[in-house]
Amino acid sequence: MFLKTLQSGGQILEVGSRECIAVGVAGTAVGQGGFCGRSGDSDLYYAPYAVAVLKALGYCTAIPVDFTDYLRDMERTSELDWIHRSSLAQSWVLIGRPEDARRVFMAGPSLTPLDSRSTCLTGYILLLAAMNCRVLGLPLSSAPTGPGGGSVPETAAVVVLACWRGAPPPREAIDYLEACVLSEGGLKAGPAAPGGDLLSTATGLEALRMAGRLRSPQEAQAHARFVTACWRDTGLFASAPADPDPKGDTEYTFHALLALGALL
Q1: What does the pLDDT read at residue 209?
Q2: Which among 99, 202, 210, 236 could bridge 255 via Cys, Cβ 3.0 to 4.6 Å?
Q3: Residue 175 is part of a domain; what is its CATH number?
Q4: CA 177 from centre of chain
Q5: Share above pLDDT 90 across residues of the chain, in percent, rounded to a whole number
Q6: What pTM does this model have?
Q7: Which residues contact 232 (CB under 8 A, 6 or more apart)?
Q8: In the chain, where do the E strands start and end?
Q9: What phi and psi, each to the nearest 5 degrees, are found at residue 49?
Q10: 233 Cβ contact list (under 8 Å, min separation 6)
Q11: pLDDT digit string (tens) for 16-50?
């Protein structure tokens, strides 16, 4: 899950800031090994984000000792949709259990190509699932290859997967991403979106970095200010500077580190 970029994002921060974030993420752990989202209830969706951030910041000891048991219980007792099945497989990869991740991926329906019905969320989750297929040596034949353009996360998925294949990203995909870059920092989800958000900023910046579209120092500073404006007193990050949520969550904390790491 972009661990190298996340680690780079953590290195930008001072030690005290890294510890503050790690404490905030560790604080979302709930009973029986899981992690909670904004509702406060345990949700498998947030588990890989929390574990990835803790690993990237060097706080692996904060991962619950019964996390492996939690994943087994989720696989055994839950009927998982494809988003949560991807979350389960990503979690197995993060704790060094590739054989379990392969079993999860092979047990369910194959990845669905991006199409006109895709959303920011599904485009991004598909990218994570495809990334783990690559790590596990599973086929990427059903992953997106078109020009993207439905949203920044969807278009970022097209660019990243092209880079992995060693192919030049579609020119229209790069143009779309760069058209969504805001002068004040951050990326918006699409040309008509009212403002920037961390999901679009993280995925867009990482895709542009992989495509060799380097940011100027001034632009990088603006993006860094956008990211830090999303930081909350809990140590977690919210979806955007104007997000009224005072707590943030592990998903957007993951996106914050990814965005910062993509600036290096």
Answers
A1: 94
A2: 202
A3: 1.50.10.20
A4: 17
A5: 61
A6: 0.90
A7: 238, 245, 246, 247, 248
A8: 187-188, 196-197
A9: -65, -45
A10: 246
A11: 999 999 999 999 999 889 999 988 999 999 999 99
